[in-house]
Amino acid sequence: MKIAILGTGSLARLYGAVFEADHPLMVGRQLGRYQLIERDDTQSWHVPRFQRWEDPAPGPWQVVLIAVKWPGMPLARQWLERWVQAETYVVTLLNGMGQEQALVPPLTMSQLSPAVTTDAAFRSDNPAQDIWRVSIKDHGTVRLTETSHANEQTLKQQAASLNLCWEWHQSDYMLRLRWTKLIANSVINPLSALSGQPNGTLLQLPLWRLAEPLCLEAENVAQSVGVSLNGTLKWVADLALSTASNRSSMLQDVLSHQPSEIESITGYIVRQANQAGIPVPTHQAILHLIHLL
């Protein structure tokens, strides 16, 4: 399988190791030989086939996995415009939503598969000493949107041969799943970033009082696009407790002084709300606070 992985962050490295036998091309700003540390402290080393964004990558590519964070989407789009053809099947593995609006065109809907994953990993790099490391917090499930694209079957067969927990679902189911995850991210990510606390601590903070209006506002916006969700607050609270020791990706971005994914999470909800004429004052306040942070 001829595969490229856009991004060099934690998930990109995880999937680079998963598909290592296919010699994937990893595309980003910087990456060297990296260490993968499993939950049981098992360690492995991987030497990626790496190129910078501006380097030529003519392909032809059967599969492209997009594992950049939202601020890197313009770079991913430029790369796709240059090197992806109609025969390429593209999977997006981003927090939040808005992939369709950002990538169609240059892609078509028939070749784009938005996905969600419960895989969890974090980086602990030291570029000055050429140390690249990613620790696996959890091996979860990747759920992808079914398309009619020919190379979807290529990826399905490879995932099955590697015994991966990758599942393909119809678009209606995936839209509901993506909105459910979006609402969870719109609560846990910014509240953890604002408080500097791991997920499980959030419920003990006065800041958690914002969780209910955040959920209710997002449910109303989801309803406006045909996704009926109710009672998400309890699900979000249970998720925060079940991942109690985790530091959200947005908190990690703040601590490492990196741009956050707020525009694909809270920003997306606010944009959809504005189009539908639905008030979302709590989300607007959160968006403003994260931008200030």
Descriptive report:
- The protein folds into two domains: 3-169, NAD(P)-binding Rossmann-like Domain (Rossmann fold), CATH 3.40.50; 174-292, N-(1-d-carboxylethyl)-l-norvaline Dehydrogenase, domain 2 (Orthogonal Bundle), CATH 1.10.1040.
- 40% of the residues lie in helices and 18% in strands.
- The protein has helices spanning 10-18, 73-83, 99-103, 150-161, 171-195, 211-224, 232-242, 249-255, 266-276, 281-292, and strands at residues 3-6, 25-28, 34-37, 43-46, 49-52, 63-66, 89-92, 112-117, 120-123, 132-138, 142-145, 166-169.
- The strands form two sheets. The chain has an eight-stranded mixed β-sheet with strand order 5-2-1-6-7-8-11-12, sandwiched between helices. A four-stranded mixed β-sheet has the order 4-3-10-9, covered by helices on one side.
- Helix 4 links the parallel strand 11 and strand 12.
- The N and C termini lie far apart (42 Å).
- The model has no long low-confidence stretch (mean pLDDT 95).
